[in-house]
Task: inverse folding
């Protein structure tokens, strides 16, 4: 081992030290409870923080190995090379299976330290002091599991095997370069998407730890639920961002003109989102009515379990995906951990269920809490459907002897009705009050939005058809009605019903106080930021839905075989192939050679522009990767995919027009901004994403 990379051995020692500290945390909690000594709980707190510190130190050491080119390490050799920009060398930490587990463990360490600091700040809280040691116990157990896996199963610090060295570097030749990062990962979204998704999943550890701790001690109050509220919001925000950025990554990298293909790993990233969304809504019911206590503990566990399931799915080899890390023994470890978490949760809920029953009951279906319960079941029905369809090839192979693949049409057919129901529930919710709402009041609140939404949804649909005017398509009248118009109407109803509810509230308060409408709007928004931030999230969901429907149902795809100087017409665009250039790796000055096409575009309206799709050849991986070119517009994206080149000097292009796809990204920004605003400590201390 080269002397200058000795810090990597120290980093591995930090992992083993962290595992020992995680075990110490568990022992201190158990012993402290046995002899009732508060000092041992404080020692467990320090041990938990020290575990996180050791893990973060190990992760920093691995990053230093990437930056300094420690190619004598198998993991660094496989995921880096000298010519990579610094940012991608840092991203090597989460670019492969081994490093991603260490990255996850380091994030758990950071979050655990923040939780420990929170308990230190609330030292005088009696309920907090009862719950604190058991939160540390669960956190320490999770940290111990991840660090044992890193130390003894994946080990990103491992040196090359003797067989590898003998085959590739005989006679002790120095290893001066690595084999390079997967070319599909050499994209700027690689620097953002995985950390966002991982951090969101790691934050879900906090609700799980508090829920299990509350079940262990039989906590019947709302202390733990108030503590996990903002943590759940934070995890939800990063999970949402991770899912959308994953779609954006696929959109700009994979070249098929879309952003969501119901890929198994994409699905795995989506599953915790449904459970956390359900938890955010049911938290409000517990704080408002004291109901759904054991259900919330179950949901907190489910969110965490589904995030671990996503990790298991990408590392077990049971599904085929462009996003998966492959198979290996680590999958069995995560499966065992997954089953253990489920068993512990179910046992504790069964044990505590009698004492957690609420004296309150849902009195009528025409109430907000009843709608939240229905919404919970709809969200979990969507998640269950996606889970079953994702695993169906594996299930069918095990039980029927044949792996039956499931494509996007099946996913859409199964899930769209549930999505429509979810959207309608989101639209009806603001019109209902807590405990009971009379049918007359409900009709008064909903009738006008329901009527107004019809022409607005029809106008949006007509606009999407107008954008793709001149292009033939196979969208039948039946599909124009369902799912197209039905989903657009449901999304429109959300925005209109929420806007109508806000308008009525502002007008009523303005009349009572004498304030102007704008001043009243600002006042009620700040004082009830959780409610109106949640409303803005729901409007963002409506905007995303509109973008998904229009860009999917009205997408245009055309294929052409062109030579330099050829022109084609795609809708209102006149497209010409003006030039082609080929550079090898040495000429490009990068880690790849490339072939670039220069395409001139003359739209019917607006100025001409040029597009430059590429094909990149990575010699170390012997891989060809296409870089698509996208001209973004408010009404549609023009998307050019350089498919292949022929020996006769021709080039095969696939050109897509994606109407209103910008609404997908705009709606995501709205959801994030609304979620952040809802989480701010403003106004009255109410609960949840929307009140």
Result:
């Amino acid at each position: 081992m080269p002397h200058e990379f000795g810090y990597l051995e120290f980093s591995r020692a930090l992992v083993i030290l962290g595992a020992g500290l995680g075990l110490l945390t568990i022992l201190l909690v158990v012993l402290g409870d046995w002899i009732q000594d508060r000092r041992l709980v404080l020692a467990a707190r320090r041990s938990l923080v020290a575990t996180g510190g050791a893990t973060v130190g190990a992760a920093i050491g691995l990053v230093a190995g990437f930056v300094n080119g420690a190619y004598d390490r198998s993991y660094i050799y496989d995921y880096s090379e000298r010519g990579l920009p610094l940012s991608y060398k840092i991203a090597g930490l989460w670019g492969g299976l081994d490093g991603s587990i260490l990255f996850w463990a380091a994030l758990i360490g950071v979050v655990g330290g923040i939780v420990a600091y929170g308990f230190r700040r609330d030292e005088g809280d009696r309920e907090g002091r009862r719950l604190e040691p058991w939160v540390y116990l669960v956190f320490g157990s999770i940290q111990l599991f991840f660090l044992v896996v890193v130390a003894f199963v994946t080990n990103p610090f491992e040196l090359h095997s003797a067989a590898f060295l003998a085959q590739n570097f005989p006679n002790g030749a120095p290893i001066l370069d690595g084999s390079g990062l997967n070319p599909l990962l050499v994209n700027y979204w690689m620097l953002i998407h995985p950390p966002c998704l991982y951090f969101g999943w790691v934050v879900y550890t906090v609700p799980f730890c508090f829920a299990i701790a509350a079940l262990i001690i039989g906590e019947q109050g709302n202390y733990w639920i108030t503590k996990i509220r903002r943590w759940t919001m934070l995890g939800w925000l990063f999970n949402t961002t991770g899912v959308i950025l994953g779609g954006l990554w696929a959109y700009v990298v994979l070249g098929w003109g879309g952003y969501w293909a119901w890929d198994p790993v994409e699905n795995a990233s989506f599953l915790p989102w449904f459970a956390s969304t359900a938890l955010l809504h049911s938290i409000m019911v517990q704080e408002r009515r004291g109901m759904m206590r054991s259900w919330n503990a179950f949901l907190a566990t489910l969110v965490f379990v589904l995030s671990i399931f996503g990790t298991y799915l990408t590392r077990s080899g049971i599904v085929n995906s462009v996003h998966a890390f492959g198979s290996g023994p680590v999958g069995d470890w995560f499966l065992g951990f997954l089953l253990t978490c489920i068993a512990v949760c179910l046992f504790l809920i069964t044990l505590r269920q009698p004492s957690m029953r609420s004296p309150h009951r849902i009195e009528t279906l025409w109430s907000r809490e009843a709608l939240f319960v229905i919404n919970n079941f709809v969200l979990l029905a969507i998640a269950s459907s996606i889970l079953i369809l994702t695993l169906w090839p594996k299930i069918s192979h095990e039980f029927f002897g044949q792996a039956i693949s499931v494509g996007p049409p099946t996913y859409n057919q199964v899930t769209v009705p549930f999505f429509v129901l979810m959207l309608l529930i989101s639209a009806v919710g603001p019109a209902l009050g807590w405990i009971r709402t009379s049918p007359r009041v409900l009709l008064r609140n909903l009738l006008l939005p329901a009527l107004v939404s019809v022409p607005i949804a029809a106008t949006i649909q007509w606009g999407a058809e107008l954008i793709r005017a001149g292009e033939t398509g196979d969208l039948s009248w039946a599909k124009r009605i369902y799912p197209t118009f039905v989903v657009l109407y449901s999304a429109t109803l959300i925005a209109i019903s929420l806007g109508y509810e806000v308008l009525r509230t502002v007008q009523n308060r303005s009349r009572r106080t004498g304030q102007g409408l704008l001043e009243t709007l600002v006042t009620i928004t700040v004082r009830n930021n959780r409610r109106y931030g949640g409303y803005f999230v729901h409007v963002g969901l409506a905007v995303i839905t509109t973008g998904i429907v229009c860009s999917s149902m009205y997408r245009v795809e055309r294929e052409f075989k062109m030579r330099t100087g050829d022109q084609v017409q795609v809708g209102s665009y006149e497209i010409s192939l003006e030039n082609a250039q080929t550079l090898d790796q040495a000429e490009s000055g990068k880690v790849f050679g490339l072939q670039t096409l220069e395409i001139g575009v003359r739209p019917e309206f607006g100025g001409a522009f040029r597009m430059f799709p590429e094909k990149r050849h990575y010699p170390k991986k012997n891989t060809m990767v296409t870089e698509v070119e996208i001209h973004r517009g408010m009404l549609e994206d023009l998307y050019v995919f350089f498919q292949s080149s022929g020996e006769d000097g021709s080039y095969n292009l696939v050109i897509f027009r994606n109407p209103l796809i910008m609404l997908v990204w705009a709606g995501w920004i709205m959801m994030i901004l609304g979620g952040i605003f809802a989480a701010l400590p403003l106004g009255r201390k109410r609960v949840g994403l929307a009140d």
